[in-house]
From TrEMBL:
Protein name: Uncharacterized protein DUF4293
Keywords: Membrane, Transmembrane, Transmembrane helix
Record field: transmembrane: 55-76, 85-105, 111-130
Any Pfam family matching the protein: DUF4293
InterPro entries: DUF4293
Origin species: Coprobacter fastidiosus NSB1 = JCM 33896
Domain of life: Bacteria
Length: 152
């Protein structure tokens, strides 16, 4: 299972996406103070335990994307379903950006602060590329099995 390169790609996707739960995604600042936007919500820099604005849908989306990548690793016996999971997860990774920027804009308006993006926002883009590479390898395996079935 993990010997296949696509399983390694999917494992990297799961690890990268789930690591976003523990990284700041953006920051806000104005004259009153500084805040950080994490997956769970917006926290003040002065007291990191104090949540100012919740963002649970972002955390749920990130956890769901990581879970789908983990599940698709173990679907190696059903390659067609594994390819569908890869496509769906890739679409969810791309849908993360508009949802995140909507939250970024709404939270910036409610805090009356300017926002700055963090490096963790590159992770979904890297994950989409890895999902595509896994999809191609799974498709190659499926084509190889189909060609072997035609020979029999």
């Amino acid at each position: 299972m993990i010997q296949r390169i696509q399983s390694f790609y999917l494992f990297l996707v799961a690890a990268l996406v789930l690591s976003m739960l523990f990284m700041p995604l953006a920051g806000y600042s104005n004259a009153d103070g500084n805040w950080q936007f994490w997956a769970m919500g917006v926290y003040t820099m002065a007291d990191p335990a104090q949540m100012v604005l919740p963002a649970w849908p972002i955390a749920i989306l990130i956890a769901l994307m990581g879970l789908l990548a983990c599940i698709s690793i173990f679907l190696y016996k059903n390659r067609i379903l594994q390819m569908k999971f890869c496509l769906f997860n890739g679409l969810m990774l791309l849908a993360f950006y508009p949802i995140f920027f909507l939250y970024l804009w709404v939270n910036g308006k409610s805090l009356a602060a300017t926002s700055s993006l963090a490096a963790a926002l590159v992770i979904p883009l890297v994950a989409v590329i890895l999902e595509y590479m896994a999809y191609r390898k799974i498709n190659q395996d499926e084509q190889l099995v189909r060609s072997a079935d035609r020979i029999r």
